[in-house]
Write a structure and sequence with these properties.
The chain is built from two helices and ten strands, in the order ββααββββββββ.
Amino acid sequence: MFNTDASDGLTQAPAATQPKPGRRKRVFAVIAAVVLLVGATAAGTALPDPRASDAYASLMAEKTSAEGERDAAKSSYSALKTKYDTLENGMAARESKVASKETEVGKADAAVKTAEAAVKAREEAVTGAEKAKAANTVGDGTWTVGSDVEPGTYRAAAAVGSTCYWGIYRSGSNGGDIIENDIPGGGRPVVTLSAGQDFNSTRCGKWEKQ
């Protein structure tokens, strides 16, 4: 359709329709997206597969070796742990036996000490008895009653012979003041001694206080 301009009498063609600014931006965005998609696809097909590289293969080999070493170490640890537990249990059992033996030894030591104490007590008792007997025993010689021998009744420890003589004197008389004397000739004679006396025994053996 033509327009007629009355001023110049020329007929002009209609003006071309221009696109709106917002529509132009959307078109550019779509084109950019398509370009990026195509570029990314091209780049993806162009990059090599990393799993096909020597470095990847080397790393995988190292990983496999490390895993093998790890598994071997775990196995070795498990074996050592089993041995350790066995040894520890054995040691615990032996320690228990040792403790039991130590207890038995302690009891035995206590029994020995008790027995030793009893023996010592008996020895002391025997020694005391022997000392008391010795103190109450008179042999041949002249003795002052009250200082050398205890007053009391004494009897010959064994049968005397025919040469036995005994005499009781007043102390300090040097045998001059005879209180009593005898030649028994046999048997086990008996004498009674008091303080202030001297007692003489000749070839009569021992006299024991009764």
